[in-house]
Each structure stands twice: as structure tokens, then as C-alpha cells.
Task: structure prediction
Amino acid sequence: MKRTKIAGIGMYVPEQVVTNGDLAKVMDTSDEWIQERTGIRERRYARRFEDTTTTMGVEAAKIAMQNAGVEPREIDFIIFATLSPDYYFPGCGVLLQRAMGMKEIGALDVRNQCSGFIYALSVADQFIKTGMYKNILLVASETHSYGLDFTTRGRNVSVIFGDGAGAVVLQPATRENQGILSTHLHSDGDSAELLSMPNPGFHAGKFWKEKRPAAPKGPYGGLFITEELLEKEDVYPYMDGQAVFKKAVIKFPEVIMEALQANNLTPVDIQLLIPHQANLRISQFVQHYLRLREDQVYNNIQKYGNTTAASVPIALYEAWHGGKITDGGLVCLAAFGSGFTWASALLRW
Ligand code: UT7
Result:
């Protein structure tokens, strides 16, 4: 069985730079607080009525395909990872297929939030290894800025997230020992609501009845979107930041070590760890816990904030473009986030 290699990478971030100082003008926050707690200095926000999750994904995909030397007609399968799709349904996969004029190929959407890219990579890996597909386009894109609460009420969430897209083209490996060595996927739904956006949704669970009692309208349910929900501004993401942080610093090292041990490797063997860019403090904790050198870990959250599913491919693109990954180098990707879901992938470049 042939391994799967990343044949091309691309990224796209919108032009609009929003600094911590800009956010401090619209809510009670400060550059000092944001930098100290998260490391973030600025992020990019989509241009209203121009950028969407799909259009940004298309831009990243064009670069990935150019780097891989493949045309849209050569792509066999699309996987699109996002938590901020253009439509509730259908997913962004088909919108990208249409926008890029691709053949009537399969298009799969992945809804795994921060670990969405690595989950999607794992799915693509199976299709390539079995020989079913030769060219898979995997896109991860997010438009958070359209759906955040920019009042002080939402500041613990809103200052963290940014918009952007990353993409990779996956193909069978061409060199001995090249490609994805293994992927490791996990979930624990016990804390699903601790980082969630429950509305609009079809839920009527006890947790939210107690926490946010949005009264149903109409005789049959009607919990989807009610006027009360909108009045209460109950349509934004919810995060218990401390709970997420505490779990993340356990699960990141755990899933990285799982990948290394599965391949009889240790942290010293890693050329570059690319952690999901959730919070610089989490990445630094993981770095110290695994005793990795500064140059073994790539971080760019300072410039883009947390772009959820897109953060790993954006960082991967920048690291590759900056010459930090060389042929034969061991690259580890790892993510943790909403669900909770977490995952890792180990690959030889
Ligand atoms: O990719 C998805 C995964 N997500 C994560 O990994 C996020 C993990 N969690 C975190 O990164 C951190 O928990 C945050 C950065 C979100 C928050 O930092 P924290 O140190 O856990 O702050 P906190 O939520 O405990 O809040 C501390 C204080 C509170 O004020 P009081 O109650 O002590 O007076 C908050 O109201 O900081 C306040 N606060 C802010 N102040 C200024 C919360 N957000 C802000 C803000 N600016 N943006």
C-alpha cells in the first residue's frame, strides 16, 4: 500500500487586519490582556459581501493545486472542513466544486471544528492508501467574524478567533518512506457544550433549558430560531475558556506521544510540530512538556488568531514556505477543540 503525501499546500487570509487595539475600541478589552493570555496581536477579518468560507477556500485551493501541479479536472475527491459554512446546508464542499468547475466528483464536509483538518486528513489518507483516489483536495476554511459577539459580553470568545483558509492536495507518495505515517483521532462528548454554538440548532436538551431558557414558539417545538433567541442575542459561540484550556494541555501532549510511540519515535525526532493555533500559551506549555526546542514548534497565532480548522494548514503552508520543513523531515500535526475532539498526524515530508 502506498502512503499518502502532501503534494501541494496553499493558504489565503483576507486583507483586512484587525488589531487588538481595534477591538478595544468596540468592547472592554486591551492589547495587554489579549497578548498576555493568548499571544495574539492581530487577526484577519473577511471583507463584507466579498469573502465567504467557500471563496477563501477556493483561493487557498488554487495555490495548493498550483504547487502540486494539478488542474481542477484532475481532482478525484473534495473534503471541506469548517465550522462556519456559507449555508446551514448544503455544505461548502459542493460550493467549492461548483466554483472551481470540477467534475461530478464526491464532496464531503467535515464538522470537527479545531481538529477538522486532521480528521479530514485521516479520511483522505484511507482513500489514497487503498488506491481509490489519486488526487484529493482538502480545504479548511473559516469565517468567524460574521458570527461573533463584538460586545463586552462576548469578549472571551471574540478576541481569539480570526478568518482564513488553508488547503492541501494529497497524492500517493513517490519516495520511499515519504508521507503520512499514522493518524490518531479521539473524542469525548461529555463536555460538548463547553465550547459550542447551540443555536441555530434542533436541540431541546436539559442543559440548555436550564442555562438559556429560550421559549419555543408555535405549537410544535419551534426551538430552531425564535424571536426571543435573537432578542437575547443567543446566537453566538459559547466557551468555558478555562475548562477548554485545562483539557487541551493534557490532550495535546497525549495525542502527540501516541503518534510518536505508534511509530517508535520520540520528541527529539520531530523536525516540526504544528499545533492547532488555539492559544500561544497552550503551544508553549506543550513545547515545554515535551522538551521541544523553540525551532521545533511553529506558531503564527500572533498574526491570525485562532482560525479553527484552517489553523493547521495555514501554519503548515507558512512553515513550508519559510523553509522550516525539509525532505525527509518528521512533521507532527496536532489539534484539540470543540467536541471535545482531538487528533494527531505524523508524516515524513
Ligand atoms: O480552538 C478552540 C479551543 N479553544 C481554546 O483552546 C481556548 C482555551 N482557553 C483560553 O485560551 C483562555 O481560557 C482564554 C484566553 C479564552 C481566557 O483566558 P483566561 O485566563 O482563562 O480568562 P478567564 O476566562 O478566566 O477570565 C479572566 C478575567 C475575567 O474577569 P474577572 O471575572 O476575573 O473580573 C473575564 O471577564 O478576564 C476577563 N476577560 C477579559 N478581559 C479583557 C475575559 N475576556 C477578556 C477580554 N479582555 N477579551
Summary: The first strand starts at residue 4 and ends at 12. The domain at 179-190+239-348 is CATH 3.40.47.10 (Peroxisomal Thiolase; Chain A, domain 1). The pocket of oxa(dethia)-CoA is lined by residues 29, 33-34, 37-38, 114, 155-156, 159-160, 195, 241-242, 244-245, 248, 278-279, 282, 306, 337 (CB under 6 Å). The radius of gyration is 20 Å.
